[in-house]
Structure formats: structure tokens, C-alpha cells
Recover the amino acids of this structure.
């Protein structure tokens, strides 16, 4: 890990599935503080921290909690912890579940308290089946300690939590698709409005929040807003969990301060700066940017300036042996396979884009393929859900930064 360790501060100092050892290092101190000071002050603290959602949308978390609280509803209210980590190159939530499951659970309970929820699910992707029993065990231990169930820690707050295994579909990371999946239906997005916060799981108010976000909330309450904002930079406080992979000698999960340069991140993972050709930042739907931009700061505004985003926290490093078109064809293969098929722009757009990418990859493309490439990418922006709309980013950025690579694949050019 890097020296920045607000989220992972206690990792390695206790056995991950020992609740007594977690408590010995201050576990559930944050929950006790939240319950003691009340949900209004807790939401105020989260807002003051400047914390933005760590799942990719970057929405202000304090605002999200307040909106969840104010959503009208007369039955159950839910919190869904989104651990449906299905993008290639993204595995930081897996690290948090394996090394800080009690911290994740504590953060979910605090989020549930703020949202006025009484039920919650940890939605874990099907491919993480190997850790399901351990997560269920951890949940059972929290029940035994009075951290879940009725009258939590004698506060009058009731909250139940369960594990739910996804069906192995990338689209289920989208809020409504996740709700559909838990309801036993095919995981497909719904039209908006109404929104998930108003009419989500079983048509009740639902807060969908990322695994890393709740981990931050737990430590934000345990330590302080002041300590959190001491990391990072003024317009982007705090730290970020990132997954670094690709052509590096030390791939893995790192916690970094916002403001760290992309160059330093590559070096941290053992990458040779001189050999880097491009990076993909933010997951499969993240920007593909040139090595000339490695001095860009890893912040929300810094990434926006290079047409990128923090996204899911993935950083894939590719050296000069990697053909950007072949790489992009693999990305498109993923999206083509994972499209739920509900809306025409995503379903048909991916099918056509996949054919074009294969022609480019095999150098059988013609100049008209490039024109259609641009048209189809623009059409995907009309997709029903965020999956189709954000997947255009790698195709737009690769086309901008590596135009000559595209032209080299065209017959007669």
C-alpha cells in the first residue's frame, strides 16, 4: 500500500474476520458516534468532508444521504451496498471485502441510519462466490454484538442486513438493474423517473451506495472530517482506492491521495514510464489517454481535463507492445457481451461497433468504417442507462489521442 492510508489505516493489524480484533482497533466507534450525535449531524459531517461517491458517478455523498432520507415512502426503506464489481481491471472493492469486511458493514449501517432505512443488502458479484460464506459469517457476528437487528446498540434504530449474490452480469451494477436482480427478475434497468431513491427495490425508497464509499463513511465517523480533508488537495479532498494492472511489475490495490500524478501511480506499481504508450483510467468505460498526459493529477477535475474520469478506480497501464486498436476491440467485445439488450442504441450499436472493431483489428476496414464508427459511438449516447452512455468514453478518447493508429488499419490509407 502507499503511505496514504485513511481507508486502510487498520488493515493488517487485526484478523479480517475476527470481530473482537476489529473492535480492539476501534471498530464500531464510528457507528456509536453517528448514533449518538444523530443522523442530521452525521449527514452534515459527510457533506462537510466533500466525499463523492466512489462507484463512478462521483455524486456528493452527503447530498445523496439527505435525499435518501427525504424520499417519501410508507413501507420498507433499503440500502444496497454495490459490490457488483464487474469491470475488467477493477478489483479494489474485492480488496476491501477481503481485508475490511467489518468496516464495510459498519459503513452500511451508518448509511442506513442516515437514510432512515430498515433493511440492507450487500450485492456481491457472482464471481466472488468464494467469499460469500465469510461475508455471511461476518454479518452474523455483527448481529451477535448487537450491531444489527432491533434496537442497535440501544439506540432505537432497527436495521437488518443480508448478502445477495448477483447473476454475473455487468449491468447489475446499475441501480435499477440491481433492484430487478434482487427481486428475482432479469437484471435490466428501468426508465427514469421515478428514480431509485424514490421507487427502487420492491418499489420502496432505496439508497444504492458503493463498497468503498461506505468504508470511507465508517472511518470518517471513527476519526474526523479534519483528518480526512488533510489528505488530497483543496478541490478534491481525501484518498482513493485504485486497482492498477497491465504492463507493471507490481500490480495490485493502492490507496492514494487525490492529487497524485498518473506518473507516480504508474511508478508505484512498478511501471517503466519510458515504455508506457497509453493508460485506461476508470474501468472498461474509462478514458484511453496518451502517455503524454502522465503528469495530470489524479483528481476529478484533473481527469476531466484529459477527457477522463476517476470512475471505478481502475488504472490499466499499456506499454508500446500493445496495439491500441486490438485493446479497444477487447473492450468492445466486453460491452457487446454485457449489453442487456433492452434498448436499441446499446443493443444494435454494440453489435455494429463490434463488427467495425474486428475489421479495424484485421486491417480489413475502409474509410467509411471510420465515419460509421463516429456515428455509432454518438448514437450509443442515447442509451437507456448509464452503461451505454458511459461506454462511449474509451472509443471517443482513443479516437482523439490515437487517430493515426486508426488510419493505419484502413485499406488504401
Amino acid at each position: 500500500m502507499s503511505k496514504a492510508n485513511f481507508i486502510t489505516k487498520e488493515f493488517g493489524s487485526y484478523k479480517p474476520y475476527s470481530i473482537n480484533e476489529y473492535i480492539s482497533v476501534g471498530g464500531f466507534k464510528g457507528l456509536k458516534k453517528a448514533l449518538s450525535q444523530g443522523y442530521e449531524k452525521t449527514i452534515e459531517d459527510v457533506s462537510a468532508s466533500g466525499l463523492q461517491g466512489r462507484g463512478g458517478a462521483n455524486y456528493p455523498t452527503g447530498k445523496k444521504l439527505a435525499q435518501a432520507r427525504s424520499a417519501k415512502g410508507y413501507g420498507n426503506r433499503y440500502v444496497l451496498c454495490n459490490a457488483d464489481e464487474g469491470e475488467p481491471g477493477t478489483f479494489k472493492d474485492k480488496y476491501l471485502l477481503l481485508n475490511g469486511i467489518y468496516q464495510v458493514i459498519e459503513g452500511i449501517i451508518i448509511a442506513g441510519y442516515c437514510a432512515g432505512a430498515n433493511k440492507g443488502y450487500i450485492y456481491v458479484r457472482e464471481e466472488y462466490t468464494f467469499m460469500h460464506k465469510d461475508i455471511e459469517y461476518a454479518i452474523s457476528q455483527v448481529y451477535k454484538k448487537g450491531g444489527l437487528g432491533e434496537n442497535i446498540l440501544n439506540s432505537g434504530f432497527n436495521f437488518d442486513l443480508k448478502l445477495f449474490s448477483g447473476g454475473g452480469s455487468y449491468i447489475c451494477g446499475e441501480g435499477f438493474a440491481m433492484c430487478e436482480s434482487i427481486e428475482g427478475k432479469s437484471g435490466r434497468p428501468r426508465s427514469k423517473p421515478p428514480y431509485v431513491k424514490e421507487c427502487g427495490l420492491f418499489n420502496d425508497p432505496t439508497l444504492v451506495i458503493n463498497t468503498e464509499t461506505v468504508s470511507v463513511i465508517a472511518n470518517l465517523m471513527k476519526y474526523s472530517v479534519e483528518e480526512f480533508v488533510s489528505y488530497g488537495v483543496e478541490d478534491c479532498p481525501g484518498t482513493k482506492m485504485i486497482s492498477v494492472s497491465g504492463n507493471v511489475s507490481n500490480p495490485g490495490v493502492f490507496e492514494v491521495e487525490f492529487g497524485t500524478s498518473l506518473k507516480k501511480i504508474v511508478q508505484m506499481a512498478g511501471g517503466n514510464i519510458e515504455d508506457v504508450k497509453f493508460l485506461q483510467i476508470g474501468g472498461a468505460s474509462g478514458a484511453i489517454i496518451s502517455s503524454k498526459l502522465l503528469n495530470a493529477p489524479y483528481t476529478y477535475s484533473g481527469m476531466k481535463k484529459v477527457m477522463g474520469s476517476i470512475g471505478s478506480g481502475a488504472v490499466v497501464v499499456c506499454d508500446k507492445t500493445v496495439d491500441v486498436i486490438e485493446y479497444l476491440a477487447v473492450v468492445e467485445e466486453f460491452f457487446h457481451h454485457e449489453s442487456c439488450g433492452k434498448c436499441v442504441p446499446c443493443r444494435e450499436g454494440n453489435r455494429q461497433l463490434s463488427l467495425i472493431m474486428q475489421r479495424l483489428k484485421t486491417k480489413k476496414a475502409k474509410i467509411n468504417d471510420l465515419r460509421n464508427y463516429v456515428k455509432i459511438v454518438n448514437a450509443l449516447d442515447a442509451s437507456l442507462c448509464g452503461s451505454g452512455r458511459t461506454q462511449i468514453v474509451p472509443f471517443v478518447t482513443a479516437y482523439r489521442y490515437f487517430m493515426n493508429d486508426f488510419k493505419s488499419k484502413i485499406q488504401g490509407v
Summary: The chain has a mean pLDDT of 95. The first helix runs from residue 19 to 24. The longest strand covers residues 239-246.
